[in-house]
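Our working data are protein records whose layout never changes between entries. The record below serves as our worked example for the rest of this section:
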Amino acid sequence: MTEQIAMVGRAEALAALDAVSAPALILVGGEAGIGKTRLVTGMPGRKFVGRCSPLREPLPLGPVVEALGVAGGFPALRKLLDDAGPSTLVIEDLHWADNATWDFLRYLCPRLPPELRVVLTYRPRETRPIDLAAGAAAAAVEIELRPLSRAEGAELAAAHLGVRAVSAAFADRLHALTAGVPFVIEEVVRALPDSTALFGDLQPSVALRGSFAQQLDQVSAPARAAVVAAAVFAVPVEESLLGAPEAVDEALEAGLLVTAGPGRFSTRHALASRAIEELLSVAERRAVHRAAADALATADPVPALRLAHHSREAGRVRDWVRYALAAGEQAHRTGEGDAVVDLLAGALAAPGLAQADRLRLATLLGRVAAHGSRHDVAIKALQGLLAEDFSPVERGEIRLALAMLLCQQGCDRTAGRHQLTLAAAELAPRPDLAARAMAALAVAGDGTEAVADRRKWAGRALALLDQVDDQEVRTAVRVNHATVLLFAGDPGGRAAAEKVLAEPGAPAQLSRGAVNFADAAAWLGHPEDARRMLARARTLAGEDEYLDVVMAGTRLRADFAAGDWAGLAERAELVRADAWRLPELDAEARLVLGELALAQGDLVTARHELRAVAEVAAADLSMPMLLAARTALARIEPEPLTDLLAAIRKQDLWVWAADVVPLAVRELDEADRLLSEFRAGFEGLDAPLVAASAHLTAGMLHGAEAEFTAAIEGYRALGRPYSALRAAEAFAELRLRSGDEKPLARTAAGYTALGASWDAARCAETLRRNGYRIPHRRGRRGYGQALSPREKSVAELAGRGLTNRQIAESLFLSIRTVEAHVASAMRKRRVRDRRLLAGE
């Protein structure tokens, strides 16, 4: 698998190498880090490998001696290669070769032994050994390796991260950072903990810095200055900002600069800029940034973000703060907060800063970080301010900014609620900010508050709106009030939500509201409302990419519930890749992956994903997610759910209990009492999913066909085929005890059509255990070279890494049957490694 990772994007080059028979000269060119060594290392057969080094006084024939292990005259060396039989002589980094090595190659190439291939790697900008090809008495092939495309770079990164795919946004940033150079991609990915991590604070590796130090030493001082200036600007700039045309030309020829548009130049990639800047002394860095700030100060429009960065690095504190505030306001308007979070957080620590500026920076930092992934940086900076000497109202503003991040990002809702409660009291003289704090308390649950408390805070916030003119605050308060009603199943919730969206309001708050409303609708069983609200949010959000990411979790859950499973696992993996430091969104994607794996019989993955979701949901107190993960786990490993029932009772939110109660009644002696409590808990509320669940529970307790029928029809009406099939299975098991096997056979067929192979296998096993078999229609079908449905199920699990025993347990098969299916699938797909069976 490691070899396959290394060869991403190199199929054409590998084919060219394989097509060349001895005797042959093969020239492999490409820039530093492009993968020349990796390519030739993978060549089969006996190899003699020597490497040229950039020494001031290189050893004569150094790489040849290294490769062959002996020194000698040219004829003797050639005879040694001739006697070696079928083999390959590899001389790497020919651009650093000494004169004796060049002379030996000029001697050898016209006299190649008949079973020898000579492979030379080099950087085309520094040398071009085409004259060797002209004199070669054999086939000569030139292969120039190009940078990987965006898609190939994403494939390479995904392989190293161990995920199926990375998101489009991840791929875009990776390509901008690395320009598709494989070595740089691998260095970047190696520095990231996983595919959900950010690139923002990524530091160039020692190896990368060393590579650029070496390249800079080989150009003139003016060319080096041009490269350094380009690295400090970190964006394409005009030639006049870099130096004399001759210096720019030299840097271009050396490959240290590239043309980035008509008359504009930059370093090769973003990580190159970081690596080069880190090579500078403190004094040189300050001087170059001062020059950059002076050059940009008269630009129109003013590039505030770049000027803030250059002013900070140049030590100009007053300019740094002024431009940071301007950049923050602009980022808040455009929804691009991540770009300025570090800048604003750093400015808060600037020496000699006035208290008013610190407060303005702090509140701005809270606003821009709310719609991004750098909230951890903002939280740390804001926490540090609370101990400083601010007035109660000023401290309340900082608390509010901090609390919104703690609650919105799912970091620590308990701490967030504590800060919100303090802020609501401190901000009493500011009804606009007090209303925001109270409205946030209404929706920022920490698992301890009853729904009545949520309603109370929402009502108090609404009551303050007569004193508030700020449109954004007014919209936020009304959005949160409607959100509380919807999640509680209040019959007036849907109307309240529609009213909020129909009235004029702040677009950012309205789009947030539409996402909240969609989330509530998905959890409680209003699929059409959920999809309609998601579409509404998309329209309202405009270019807000952060909101696109956040609503993706609701889309995944809606797709799973609707049985839209084709490509769902891949979509969930992409959402995970986009969920940078957003634990709740990551948990939503993992919940879907776990539920899907469970339905498909991959119990190993299901346990792993669902346990992770349960852990995150319990810590961040996301009750609907916790209930979903724990009840799914209980289908694999039956466990008491009394703690979940206790939490539901404490919050008086039986509308969230749709999955819990049908499982819990199997374990409880007082099941009828629980059913009565369940029905009383949602009586009069707008939560169709729990209504269907109550019918299922009653059917299971009393064997009532009418209740089962109502449950099945209820789930179907809600567009939840998997839930309907599970209800049908419970009823079919009852019919089986009466000697009627047909309902269970139909249910098994329904599971198979949906893709729920684990459930279908369970039904088949129940039928077999009771002396029945599922009949094949029109005899056994022949699949030829295509995989049968059973082979597909087995192949998918084998490709995910499950053992034959684990597959047998998951699909209710014998180990011998699994072995036969794996062997057949590998033969039909022509693979030798069972891990390659996944995803085809």
